[in-house]
Amino acid sequence: MSRLARMFQECRAEGRSALVGYLPAGYPTVPGSQDLLTVMVSAGCDLVEVGVPYSDPVMDGPTIQAAAEHALRAGFRLRDLFTVVESVATAGGRAVVMTYWNPVYRYGVDAFARDLAAAGGLGVITPDLVPDEADDWLAAAERHALDRIFLVAPSSTDERIARTAGAASGFLYATSVMGVTGARDAVSHAAPELVRRARAHTDLPIGVGLGVRSREQAAEVAGFADAVIVGSAFVTAAATGEAAVRELAGELAEGVRIGADSASPVG
Amino acid sequence: MSSGDHVDQHGPDARGHFGPYGGRFMPEALMDALDELSAEYDKARVDPAFTGELDRLLRDYAGRPSLLTEAPRFAEHAGGARILLKREDLNHTGSHKINNVLGQALLTKRMGKKRVIAETGAGQHGVATATACALLGLECVVYMGEVDTKRQALNVARMRLLGAEVIPVKTGSRTLKDAINEALRDWVTNVDTTHYLLGTAAGPHPFPLLVRNLHRVIGVEARQQCLDLLGRLPDVVAACVGGGSNAIGIFHGFIDDPGVRLVGLEPGGAGLDSGRHGATLTAGSPGTLHGALSYLLQDEDGQTIEAHSISAGLDYPGVGPEHSWLKDTGRAEYRPVTDAEAMAAFSLLSRTEGIIPAIESSHALAGAQQLGRELGPDAVILVNLSGRGDKDVDTAAKWFGLVTEEEAE
């Protein structure tokens, strides 16, 4: 059983969803991101997504774009990613990487998988790589025992959901709205419907991301998803400092535990 | 030859791969829209209602076929080779871009979508898109890098006159690459109602195939015009390459003629050694950008390197995937032309032939001068004059110091 599978099993035993927090490596600096991610882990994130700053982040809204630009200007290099992942693992946390595909392609797909596994990373989320183009990655992930986390969207056909879920491992990432990343005031109505459709095709845990920023929203998403994924809100908090990150993680960790006894997520 | 009846013996495969290049490196959220576009295009291209309407618009609205003009006085500065110009500058809106936008705007209507978004660099594609949307009653939003809105302010006004909304893009390098990023963000948010009318033969499948086939008319016409004029094919076809749409269109008329050399001219900017250029195929390496695997300008970590060119329309660090494949197979060759060489050719064509070319097309003219000197007076070189230079007069006035301070006041 993969370590991600074990994590979801533990959360399920507690009758709750997992909390997943995102932060770009190198934001605001490489050591700064190491500290912030460690805080996220100790304050209640069951899993952290370590983002790779990229020059052309077409799936990201203004908050994460600005953070990526900041990290690149501050001198982030791809090799720093492994340092950051390693520090999360050393601190007892679990980390997956979220990256646009070109940095991985350029590094060498197998070399990237090898070095990520060696750093203690558990898998990779690939927002612009669909299984149709992922033969090399699927082979490398298999070779280095990494989970491959693909995305499904409200626009995905049932056929594509089935195919994507079939290629994924660890969990399936459901983007709850059509659009780019960024905190939103309301959780999309499309999200529960997408999760329902996805569950018809897979037993994998399903994480829901895009837009969550409060305890109440976390609780709402936890009502139908196995993982609540929070990105832009953590990046915004990171701009304020460690205390804001700790506070947000604590609030969201409470959110995924609201109603833990009565309404445990299925699947 | 109509616009619709071409069989793709030259690829791509069913998933949009030209050899290893192309494909769909895009968010899952857009896959359904790309599938829908592929399916609609497959139906439309064999539907006489569609191809007939497109051919009618190309003829009665865009002004096709475009002329083939011999340029003997220019040729004196090109080793005495015969130089033939394919006059895409004479199309309605002033460039080859109209071929693609008319086809895609008709497809938009077939798909039942009412809103079109587009990116633009020099403004040629933005103007062409705004034109087609005005003609067909579609809502039009054009993303344009803030740097380019300043370089091409008249084209911004032109698009607005045509009823389009122009959104200056202030992220990244604030040029064409970032305009595409912003258009993609819009598309992923509004994909149900919106067609992304991509302006070059790049991006995810089916765009490289679709845009190439819509521009293939350039090469098909030019080939016949060469035969009619000379009774023979040209030795070389030269075209500028930014994303590569005009080049792939004219190349495809000759791709099965092994005796015809296909030469793409890339923006060499301040020179390859300066690092300030956009010579993707000459100096780049394979990677994924904007939905396809292709050559691109990138650093060791796969971060995109900003391109530099005096020509806003060539100022792009990527290139269409079929060009990458044509380079690797050797069927086409690619060379850089510097800003200075392109501007010299811009001036030369204006003075020798009374034709002011786009700075983009001037790269092809400079390449033709080099090729003419290499090949000598027996050679025939066909140049794709992809656009007219009215939009570039301000840039040229600055470059050549054509306006005195007194006159500028």
UniProtKB/TrEMBL annotation, chain A:
Catalytic activity, reaction form: (1S,2R)-1-C-(indol-3-yl)glycerol 3-phosphate + L-serine = D-glyceraldehyde 3-phosphate + L-tryptophan + H2O
Gene3D superfamilies: Aldolase class I (3.20.20.70)
Superkingdom of this protein's organism: Bacteria
Keyword Amino-acid biosynthesis: yes
Annotated InterPro entries: Aldolase_TIM, RibuloseP-bd_barrel, Trp_synthase_alpha_AS, Trp_synthase_suA
A GO cellular component entry from the record: cytosol
Single Gene Ontology MF annotation: tryptophan synthase activity
The keyword GTP-binding belongs to this UniProt entry's keyword annotation: no
Keyword annotations from UniProtKB, A to Z: Amino-acid biosynthesis, Aromatic amino acid biosynthesis, Lyase, Tryptophan biosynthesis
The enzyme's E.C. designation: 4.2.1.20
Known pathway: Amino-acid biosynthesis; L-tryptophan biosynthesis; L-tryptophan from chorismate: step 5/5
Classification via Pfam families: Trp_syntA
Catalytic residues (UniProt): E49, D60
General function of this protein: The alpha subunit is responsible for the aldol cleavage of indoleglycerol phosphate to indole and glyceraldehyde 3-phosphate.
UniProt similarity note: Belongs to the TrpA family.
Record note on quaternary structure: Tetramer of two alpha and two beta chains.
Annotated NCBIfam families: trpA
Name recorded for this polypeptide: Tryptophan synthase alpha chain
Gene field: trpA
Automatic annotation (TrEMBL), chain B:
Top-level taxon of origin: Bacteria
Gene Ontology cellular-component annotations: cytoplasm
Tryptophan synthase beta chain-like PALP domain segment(s): 63-387
Keywords: Amino-acid biosynthesis, Aromatic amino acid biosynthesis, Lyase, Pyridoxal phosphate, Tryptophan biosynthesis
A Pfam family assignment: PALP
Subunit text: Tetramer of two alpha and two beta chains.
PANTHER family: TRYPTOPHAN SYNTHASE (PTHR48077:SF3), TRYPTOPHAN SYNTHASE-RELATED (PTHR48077)
Protein name as catalogued: Tryptophan synthase beta chain
Gene name of this polypeptide: trpB
